[in-house]
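Pipeline run #58 for the internal structure catalog. This entry was flagged by the ingest filter as a single-chain record with no existing model, so it goes straight to prediction. Upstream metadata was stripped on purpose; only the residue string is passed forward. Reviewer on rotation: M.T. Logging verbosity set to normal.
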Amino acid sequence: MLGLMQSQPMLISGLIDHAERHHGDAEIVSRRVEGDIHRSTWAGIAVRSRQVAHALDQLNLLFSDRVATLAWNGYRHLELYFGVSGSGRVLHTINPRLHPDQIAWIANHADDQVLCFDMTFLPLVQAVHARCKTIRQYVALCDADKLPPDSGIPGLVSYEAWIGGQPTSYEWPTFDENSASSMCYTSGTTGHPKAALYSHRSTTLHAFAAALPDVMSLSARDSVLPVVPMFHVNAWGIPYSAALTGCKLVFPGPAMDGKSIYELIEAEKVSYAAGVPTVWQMLLGHMKPGGLRFSTLKRTVIGGSACPPAMISAFNDDYGVEVLHAWGMTEMSPLGTLCTLKNRHLDLPPAEQMKIRLKQGRAIYGVDMKIVDGDGQPLPWDGKTYGDLYVKGPWIVREYFKGEGGDPLVDGWFPTGDVATIDAEGYMQITDRSKDVIKSGGEWISSIDVENIAVAHPAIAMAACIGMAHPKWDERPVVVVVKKPGAQVTREELLQFYQGKTAKWQIPDDVIFVEAIPLGATGKILKTRLREQLKDYALPAA
């Protein structure tokens, strides 16, 4: 016997309709490429997203045709989020930090039909457009008078001219909620990037789950600053959860430096922010010398890579901002876990609470996870046993676009490539990527633990730990560090700093000082490139 409830598909158009109807006056604030501050509302975004849909119709785009973006976080990008997907097409956010060869390959592999780009990326588009065989319309996200007359890109139009004359009413189509809504390519795989293809159903479910009190806890009372880019797993789904809850959105545009982020937080009374550790490092670096404080910021989600304990302590102890440690992947839409305390933890001493906050957190409803050994057998949840982390759920990838890489699942579970522990209360902690874990004398050493101790030293700005070949122990850890400007520390002083903080056999064998550590397109440390740079390095004699 079936239930007698109405059958209504979960579509992204329903999110923007809800935001317009019930939170139409909530602000959408953007720092534009031009440098000025633009103000809109959810009602304004809804109107212009319908104009986007009309503009796509006029191009005779088919259902599920791909529309690509090379754009910062801003109101026009948000309009494309809803106008493209709501009209039945697929939004394809491209990471502009990728190499031009990769961007061209991705656009062709996705069969992109339209490319909308911020003027920051005009040189990039000029460099790749001749190689993008499927794109038939280029749209510059700017006013008509800002369009360069000699761009060299055939048929280039300005966004405002493209949508400006379109009707403001539009009948959103109704279709299967399992239809594709957006796609993101991940570079965290071997070979060419592979695309996760999200559905309207998976995106809407993720939006509900992400907004829950024990996850991002978003509400109409929040002013939210997503510093995480809209081209990075759809800004962790925040644009969709924001429409669902009606919160104010504040977009930083291209200005990601500490000073610009701080000024935006204060001017727009931001209560909640989300980003990767490297961004918050710049923010804290700007604030401390000037003795600056936050007047409204209460919570920040930090993900993308492990958050150093020193950063959690700085936010919490120095500025009264709660850090919510998160974990996920492009293949997971992206949220899988988020770290919030349970009721029984509230009376624990701060040091005990910190041990919990350092973990990536508990699984969000909708995500199941397990750790397994090398034979695929489940391992105990005791907080000590390391294993390969597997996940499954309704917003986790089943296969990659066009079947790239074959079937990624193992008995219905997706192998994340992370090594983790899970404790008896379900708190998961990433100890390493499986490709980065250091095997020394048959024991595992967590590169993340080694890095966290290094960045806790007052002279260290950034650290990366990698394993180097050793004739006796197979591998031994070395830590590569960047010093803070003007700071001084010797190899011996830093190695001494490890004493008492970890087991002696886990202390690095050497410290390598560098001017910069290579970062990838999403701000993660590129350990593969670091290993290449150090291919001629030899461990010091014992």
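catalog note: The first strand starts at residue 27 and ends at 31.
catalog note: The chain has a mean pLDDT of 94.
status: ready for reviewer M.T.
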